[in-house]
Design a protein that fits this description.
Helix content of chain B: 25-40%
Strand content of chain A: 25-35%
Distance between the termini of chain A: 42 Å
CATH topology of the largest domain in chain A: CV3147-like fold
Radius of gyration of chain A: 19 Å
Order of helices and strands of chain A: EHHEEHHEHEEHEEHEHEHHEEEEEEEH
Largest sheet of chain A: 7 strands, antiparallel
Structural class of chain A: alpha+beta
Strand order of the largest sheet of chain A: 15-14-13-12-11-17-16
Low-confidence stretches of chain A: none
Radius of gyration of chain B: 24 Å
Mean pLDDT of chain B: 89
Helix content of chain A: 25-40%
Low-confidence stretches of chain B: none
CATH architecture of the largest domain in chain A: 3-Layer(aba) Sandwich
Oligomer: heterodimer
Largest interface: A-B, 43 and 37 residues
Distance between the termini of chain B: 13 Å
Chain lengths: 364, 514
């Protein structure tokens, strides 16, 4: 069985930042925490979703709330594993493995140290294959896993059992609880059998993100140099399609907070043709990329932006005039191509008046 | 009149100024003896201008002493940290991400106790006074005087840090205490790192300040003296002993402020070209634009208020590669005056290109006469393109901006820059940093997390402005000249629509220059 130890965390975090498509917050706190806890408890065992026994009981764990809060309110060692322990106590079910909500950003590392602390494996996969802002957008509820019973726990160890009928209600409830319970909470949710894991989980994203991060970090120079290697890496992965969409500089970036979300647009100008511009529509993540009026990539396909000179993924919060960037379109995993999935993750689910066209069907 | 002195790693620059007029200036190699170096600088400008000590109203000093101490892990005190955060935060204790050698230089004295606040202003826990006393007992046992205190969300609610400092002072009257909320911003790991570094420099700061005082006394200067800090304002001598770390980036700041004075322009891009690098910064409203990201000091993440500086590898000593298609980042540095072709050496440098294309009269033209004209032109274009790109990355929008060139390497740029509305090469550009140090303004800054559902935006802003004003007045500002320099308002994602972080900064003139 594969493992992920403290030495792999910086690579994983770099890959997770790339796959976070501009969202996911600053992963520094969860990176440090993972490095410390995997040193203390040993590496986490990675279990391929294809190898999860059908009768295994798997629970998704991570944190929910405002990333800004974790900058001040640092975690304890126990808080996420505590939510999982209470989950077992309150539901009477023994948890055999954990799985991340999302591979994009800080939530990718949390299940690893929870697994190491519990002495159970972590499924090498996740429920998004990227970062997305809301719980109903995860593949788990889309493919029939009820989000509850869920156990949430705050930094003080206060916990609560949530029961909701549907994913949308769950999202609203847990968001309100996070604000009421100090701004950031841990959650153990979406309990599922091994059989469901095989159907829902986007496979091998933890090991993929680690490999991707290793490539980005070991290179560290101009992104163009590793573009062929990135193409190969993505093409043989769950994502399949990897397209270079644009290289240019940021000439405008505007964002405001609406309904708790960071909403805005960024405008990029091509180096070679100064009258060619790309517009990026942002709602926490990069959701739509247009060249002129033509949409060249849209959610749930991934739009990833890196600083051209350093190959470092660029977070939407850090984007500003003058940055030289390369924009890539990456095909979403097949799980997001079904009508049920597109109903909650296509551009219209975010309020954009346009249809989703798969990346590979868009001609230059 | 006043004297500005900038003590850099290599050079010490000094100017004597009468209002905005430069009376005399001087440049010398930096002495390892603080007192002697300052006396030499004072002598140089005062003798040349034939000025008596009583004509001097103030001396302003910029220094890299404290940055170097951290980078070299020298002269740092054993330092304790008490963080009020429990029951949260135990997963990431203080100094958990420090390089081992720097951590060892400060010793193993980290304590976490109950206390701190949540984002909404409620207590995480009441301050655990018993645990505080236990920590102080151990600190007394180990005879440690340098102590940093931090508490969760202290930039919004400071009272737990204030209570800790009060108790420490009661029990250790000669303690040198750094409060994190007075030094850093939101982000407790980075802020407590900043407070720790600051506290560890306290002893050194006291020695440096007394050397500065001794130098002034020996030259019969009874006027006050000030030290310039990262944000372009001054702090008084008693202040620097408490906040030495706030000088970490005063070099680039002073050169930005100096450029503003030399040109009278308050909004511009300043390019300071030295021997090895070009430092590009932004003047906004006469002050440096500050960086919003984390700043690495000696391998530690901090969130000091520091100017946003982009450094690129182009300076007067940069090597020329690829027939002029590429320059730097390798440089002959301070050996330029012997290694460069125009100085009889054998290495082709950026300065040789400037000599060959006729943009400067320094050096000897015969040393570069053999250079291919095509190479000279290519290298000239490359240098301009490098500076153009750096300016473009830093300017706030696509609008062309005034570009001010300072520093000894500014001779490299002789032509127009595409990004510039105008290119300005002020006189005395070589001592811009000493001129920047001589500017008499002081400031105050506060950062609060507010909720507009609990108090109106106007009321929150007024309160924050009042706090910033009191800080500036405490630092020596004349209340009547205070103006709001900057208001930054950031709403917080995934929270209520009405939670926001506000940061307000005010500046004013020093009181005695009324």
């Amino acid at each position: 069985m594969k493992t992920i130890g403290a030495d792999h965390i910086k690579d994983l975090c770099a890959g997770a930042a790339f796959l976070a498509t501009g969202g996911g917050g600053d992963p520094y706190v969860s990176q440090l925490q993972a490095e410390r806890l995997l040193t203390k408890f040993g590496p986490a065992q990675l279990l391929s979703p294809l190898d999860v026994p059908d009768d295994f009981f798997v629970v998704s764990v991570g944190m929910v709330g405002a990333p800004t809060v974790t900058l001040e309110q640092l975690p304890t060692e126990e808080e996420t594993v505590g939510a999982l322990n209470q989950y077992e106590a309150l539901t009477g079910k023994k948890v055999d493995a954990v799985i991340p909500f999302e591979i994009g950003g800080g939530n990718s590392t949390i299940p690893l140290f929870v697994a190491a602390m519990k002495g159970i494996p972590c499924v090498d996969g996740d429920g998004m294959g990227r970062a997305l802002p809301e719980a109903q957008m995860m593949t788990f509820p889309i493919y029939g896993v009820p989000p509850t019973p869920a156990v949430i726990m705050d930094a003080f160890g206060h916990y609560e059992l949530l029961e909701c009928d549907d994913a949308l209600t769950f999202e609203k409830t847990i968001r309100a609880k996070a604000v009421a319970m100090g701004g950031m909470i841990s959650s153990a949710e979406h309990g599922m059998t091994g059989q469901l894991v095989k159907r829902c989980a986007i496979p091998h994203t933890l090991s993929f993100a680690t490999e991707l991060g290793r490539l980005l970090r070991s290179h560290g120079g101009v992104i163009d140099v590793i573009q062929d290697r990135l193409t190969t890496l993505f093409e043989k992965s769950e994502y399949g399609v990897f397209k270079h969409l644009f290289t240019g500089k940021v000439i405008d970036s505007k964002r405001t907070i609406i309904g708790g979300y960071d909403v805005g647009t960024a405008l990029l100008q091509s180096f070679n043709h100064s009258d060619t511009t790309m517009e990026i529509l942002i709602k926490n993540e990069y959701l739509v990329a247009k060249i002129g009026d033509k949409v060249v990539a849209s959610v749930p396909d991934l739009i990833c932006i890196v600083e051209q000179e350093s190959s470092r993924p660029l977070n939407a919060e850090r984007m500003r005039y003058g940055q030289r960037v390369s924009v890539f379109g990456i095909g979403c995993p097949r799980h997001y191509r079904s009508p049920d999935a597109l109903a909650v993750t296509a551009p219209r689910a975010f309020g954009f008046d346009l249809d989703y066209v798969p990346l590979e069907d868009i001609k230059a | 009149m006043r004297i500005g002195i900038d003590v850099g790693g290599t050079h010490t620059d000094a100017v004597l100024m009468d209002g905005a007029r430069i009376v005399t200036s001087h440049k010398a190699l930096t002495s390892s003896d603080v007192r002697r170096g300052l006396m030499e600088a004072l002598d140089a400008v005062m003798l040349e201008a034939q000025i008596n000590a009583d004509a001097i109203d103030a001396v302003m000093i910029g220094t890299t002493h404290f940055t170097n101490a951290v980078i070299e892990r020298k002269e740092l005190s054993q330092t304790a940290i008490i963080r009020a955060c429990l029951p949260t935060g135990s997963g990431l204790p203080p100094k958990c991400d420090w390089p081992a050698d720097l951590s060892a230089a400060l010793g193993d004295h980290a304590y976490m106790i109950g206390g701190g606040h949540l984002f909404n202003g409620k207590e995480i826990a009441p301050l655990d006074e018993r645990a505080l006393d236990d920590a102080i007992d151990k600190i007394i046992d180990q005879d440690i005087k340098a102590i940093a205190v931090a508490a969760s969300f202290s930039p919004a609610v400071a009272n737990h840090e204030l209570l800790m400092a009060k108790r420490i002072r009661q029990r250790i009257p000669d303690a040198n205490i750094s409060l994190s909320h007075e030094i850093g911003r939101l982000g407790i790991l980075e802020r407590e790192n900043a407070a720790l570094l600051n506290a560890s420099l306290g002893n050194l700061a006291a020695r440096v300040v007394s050397s500065m005082q001794a130098a002034l006394e020996q030259r019969n200067l009874t006027c006050p003296f000030y030290v310039s800090q990262n944000d372009g304002t001054l702090m008084s001598a008693d202040y620097i002993a408490r906040y030495p770390a706030l000088t970490f980036s005063s070099g680039p700041t002073n050169s930005l402020r100096g450029a503003a004075v030399l040109t009278g322009i308050s909004d511009a891009i300043v390019v300071d070209i030295g021997g090895t690098t070009a430092d590009v910064g932004v003047l906004a409203n006469g002050f440096p634009r500050e960086s919003n990201s984390y700043i690495d000091v000696g391998g530690v993440r901090t969130n000091f208020r520091m100017p946003d500086i982009l450094s690129i590898g182009l300076g007067g000593g940069s090597l020329v590669h690829d027939d002029g298609g590429r320059l730097g980042p390798q440089s002959v540095g301070h050996r330029l005056v012997s290694a460069g072709l125009a100085f009889g050496g054998a290495t082709l440098t950026a300065t040789d290109i400037a000599v060959a294309n006729g943009s400067t009269a320094v050096g000897d033209m015969t040393g570069v006469a053999h250079l291919d004209a095509g190479l000279v032109e290519r290298a000239t274009l490359t240098m301009h393109a490098m500076i153009d790109e750096a300016v473009d990355k830093m300017r706030p929008s696509e609008q062309p901006v005034p570009v001010i060139l300072v520093g000894g390497g500014s001779i490299l740029i002789s032509r127009h820059l595409q990004t510039a509305s105008t290119v300005i090469r002020p006189e005395h550009a070589g001592v811009a940093n000493a001129i920047g140090a001589a500017i008499a303004q002081v400031g105050g800054e506060v950062e609060h997390i507010v909720s507009y559902s609990r108090e109106s935006r106007e009321k929150a802003m007024t309160y924050a402005t009042t706090q910033a004003r009191s800080k500036a007045i405490a630092a020596g500002a004349d209340p009547d000249t205070l103006r709001v320099l900057d208001i930054e308002e950031t709403t917080m994602s995934y929270m209520d629509d009405d939670a926001a972080k506000i940061r307000i900064k005010v500046v004013g003139n020093l009181r005695q220059f009324l």
